[in-house]
Design a protein that fits this description.
Blueprint: E1 11-13, E2 22-29, E3 37-43, E4 67-69, E5 74-82, E6 93-101, E7 111-112, E8 115-116, E9 119-126, E10 128-133, E11 155-160, E12 173-178, E13 189-195, E14 200-204
Length: 213
């Protein structure tokens, strides 16, 4: 997929990869054949260090079994996919494999004879997370003291400013969660995982009969 003289530089993770949401790769790939080719992709969503059949991207632009690469190729094409709600990744990294082949239908590491069919490129995208606690600040000092419980069910919206880094433009992306909604979280906790480098804004829905501090 890489340009002539380069190796494994044809894919960019253009958006956060937040579980339960849609994400996007920007892909440049050559196709010098006389027919459309197929680009398959796998993401190590469960973070176990291997690419499994159930981790192949089959949603969005990759539906049902891969993305179409027309004759001549793709130039900074936006290819979308869904991130499973239970994705955990591996030590804060998204491990991704792409295979470009004439007909698709390949496993992550399948071979015919001794020669791999289709180009293989592996990527590691570093991810981050943001999270904190919404609690009942009974003495209005901005610090959670003893006896000040977390508040479940508070709506939290995260806005990603997009590639231009400017909030309020058309390339913004918004994600929502609720405090205490995920398994293993303490009362009032919230987290957004799968973030990429960029500018973000967090906004809360103030519970009824309360004032933000």
């Amino acid at each position: 997929m890489a340009k002539a003289g380069d190796d494994e530089d044809g894919v960019i993770l253009a958006t956060p990869m937040i579980p339960g949401n849609t994400a996007c790769f920007i892909v440049s790939a050559m196709n010098m054949t006389t027919n459309a080719a197929v680009l398959q992709a796998w993401v190590d969503f469960n973070g176990n260090g291997t690419f499994e059949s159930g981790e192949q991207l089959t949603t969005g632009s990759f539906s049902p079994t891969g993305a179409t690469v027309p004759v001549g190729g793709l130039n900074a094409a936006k290819l979308t996919f869904n991130v499973p709600s239970d994705a955990t990744f591996y030590q804060g990294n998204a491990m991704v494999r792409f295979r470009l082949s004439p007909a698709g239908g390949l496993a992550p590491d399948s071979q015919i004879g001794s020669v791999p069919i289709g180009e293989i490129e592996d990527y590691k995208f570093t991810l981050a997370k943001i999270g904190n606690l919404v609690f009942e600040d009974r003495d209005f000092d901005g610090t959670q003291d003893a006896g000040e419980p977390g508040i479940d069910g508070v709506g939290v919206m995260l806005t990603y400013a997009g590639p231009d880094g400017v909030l309020g433009n058309s390339d913004d992306a918004m994600y929502q969660t609720t405090t205490g909604s995920a398994s293993g979280q303490q009362m009032g906790e919230y987290y957004f995982c799968g973030l990429i480098n960029g500018t973000y804004k967090v906004k809360f829905t103030t519970p009824a009969s309360m004032t933000p501090t």
